[in-house]
Design a protein that fits this description.
The protein is an alpha+beta fold and about 70 residues long. The protein has one domain: UreE, C-terminal domain (Alpha-Beta Plaits). Helix content is about 40%, strand content about 20%. It has 3 helices and 3 strands; from the N terminus they run βαβαβα. The two termini are about 15 Å apart.
Length: about 70
């Protein structure tokens, strides 16, 4: 898996996941439990991961919709 997005903004993660699902790209959100443990005050960012073979297509989808990524 490759990291596509890392953010404290839960709405950005939700939007990115919806975009990727619309493009038929599987994604996986990690660090969710850590975020919950810290009380959801946004200190620990969540990460959105995609398969290496989908990374370039996922990057394009994010950039086309104005979402800044780590790639």
């Amino acid at each position: 898996m490759k990291q596509l997005l890392r953010t404290n903004d839960t709405t950005s993660i939700a939007f990115a996941k919806a975009l990727l699902q619309g493009e038929g790209i599987d994604c996986f959100e990690i660090d969710v439990n850590m975020s919950i443990l810290e009380g959801s005050i946004g200190v620990f960012p969540r990460r959105l991961m995609v398969a290496p073979q989908d990374f370039e297509r996922a990057l394009r989808a994010m950039h086309d919709n104005g979402i800044e990524t780590d790639g």
